[in-house]
Structures are given as C-alpha cells and as structure tokens.
UniProtKB/TrEMBL annotation:
Pfam families: Glucosamine_iso. It catalyses: alpha-D-glucosamine 6-phosphate + H2O = beta-D-fructose 6-phosphate + NH4(+). It comes from Lactobacillus colini. Gene3D superfamilies: 3.40.50.1360. Catalyzes the reversible isomerization-deamination of glucosamine 6-phosphate (GlcN6P) to form fructose 6-phosphate (Fru6P) and ammonium ion. The active site is at 62 (proton acceptor), 128 (for ring-opening step), 130 (proton acceptor), 135 (for ring-opening step). InterPro entries: Glc/Gal-6P_isomerase (IPR006148), Glucosamine6P_isomerase (IPR004547), Glucosamine6P_isomerase_CS (IPR018321), NagB/RpiA_transferase-like (IPR037171). This is Glucosamine-6-phosphate deaminase.
Length: 233
C-alpha cells in the first residue's frame, strides 16, 4: 500500500487526478467512481483538464435506494453535476435507485462490472471504515447488493439533506469482492474525522468489522490523505 500525505484536499484531489491521467496513458478504459465530499477536488481537476473521457466507461460504486435520479441528493445527480455534464463519458453506469426489482438490478449491475473490468477504482472512506456503502460486517466476498445503512452513516450523510429524516435508509452498492477486482485502487481521505478509519485501514487487523482493511491485501492501492486524516499513523 502506497501512502501519499498532502497538505489539503485540493492537493490530494490533484494527485488523484494525476493517477487517473497516468492510468489512462497506460491504457485504462474503465474508471470506478465515488460520490461524497472527498472526491470533489479530483472531479474539479478532471473538469478543468483537457483530458477527453468520451471513450471511457465509468461505473459508480453506489446509489441510494428509493430516490429519483433527478433528486438533488441522488448520486446520479451528483455525478452529472460534478463530472458528467462537463466531461461526458462513452457510458456511465450508476445503480438504478428506483429499480422495482432489486434483485434484477443487482444482477444487471454485476454483469456491467463483469463486462467492464475496472482499471482504476476511486474510493472514499467512512468514519466507521466503510467503503462504498459496505458497512462494518459486510462479507469480504460480497458482490453488488442492497444495503441497510447504519445510524452513523445516516447521520454523517444528513448534512447533505434538509433533515436527517430525509436520508434514505437503504442503498444499492458494489460489493467488496468487486472493488478488490479493480486493477488499481486510489482511496482518498481528508479531515480529522477520518483519522481512526485511516489508522484502521493502514495499520489495523484485516477484519470485516473494518471493510476498508481488506485493501491491505490488494496489490496496487494508493491512499491519499491530508495531514489531519493521517495524524494517528
Ligand atoms: C460514496 C461512497 C462512500 C463515501 C464515504 C465518505 O460513493 O462510496 O463510501 O466515500 O461515505 O464520504 P465523504 O467523502 O462524504 O466523507
């Protein structure tokens, strides 16, 4: 695992963007993408760059369940706003949060991932060590699945909603096994709230209680964090 410590999220996002650029120069065709506040600076750097993504495929990690793609809090909306409106991809996949048949949607998403092996996966990390919406206790061999969000994640995400009661309690999420199949992984973490999660990810035992800890077993992971997030290492 490679660790890059940056002064702040802007520098961290720029580093992550450079890793995407290098991967594309080396033939990467499919990017795995995340939402949340962590990758914003990276998306900004992508949008401001002259890089062309129109021959690339993107596959997002997750989407809230029961939320319309036009809802400003949906991850579809987030991706349009922060990346795809400015930098369209050849095809961008995000789980369908309105799918009536959840099992069918899960199968569909697993097929998409199988048909488009992810060359570089971008990840954030939750304060409890979750990656995507894979909460503590998620089996390491999980594929795409429907998840029940924990109280701490609902609370952390409520800052994006008018009220905590509006935060969906479920999501569709790429599984840990699929994430681990990505050729390269870049995980970013910024801010002191992520200190414990970063310590557990980098130094802790590999346990399903800290989903991100499995990344220690991946052959090509770069962790980019700011000084605050790395303070306990
Ligand atoms: C979002 C996702 C989540 C976030 C994590 C951190 O697609 O996969 O795991 O990366 O919850 O969220 P932020 O970046 O808002 O701190």
């Amino acid at each position: 695992m490679k660790l890059i410590i940056t002064k702040d999220s802007i520098e961290g996002g720029t580093k992550a963007f450079e890793l995407i650029k290098d991967a594309m120069a080396n033939g990467a065709k499919t990017l795995g993408l995340a939402t949340g506040s962590t990758p914003l600076a990276m998306y900004d750097a992508m949008c401001k760059s002259s890089l062309d993504f129109s021959e690339m495929i993107s596959i997002n990690l997750d989407e809230y369940y029961g939320i319309d793609p036009t809802n400003a809090q949906s991850y579809h909306y987030f991706m349009q706003k922060h990346l795809f409106d400015k930098k369209p991809f050849k095809h961008s996949y995000v789980p369908n949060g309105l799918a009536k048949d959840i099992d069918q949607e899960v199968d569909r998403y697993n097929q998409i991932i199988a048909q488009n092996p992810i060359d570089l996966q971008i990840l954030g990390i939750g304060q409890n060590g979750h990656i995507a919406f894979n909460e503590p206790g998620t089996p390491f061999n999980s594929l795409t699945h429907k998840v029940d969000l924990t109280e701490s994640t609902i609370k952390a995400n409520s800052r994006f909603f008018k009220d905590e009661s509006e935060v969906p309690h479920q999501a569709i999420c790429m599984g840990i096994k699929s994430i681990m199949h990505s050729k390269k992984i870049v995980l970013m973490a910024f801010g002191k709230e992520k200190q414990d999660a970063i310590k557990a990810l980098v130094e802790g035992p590999i346990t399903e209680q800290v989903p991100a800890s499995i990344l220690q077993d991946h052959p090509d992971v770069t962790v980019i964090c700011d000084e605050a997030a790395s303070a306990k290492l």
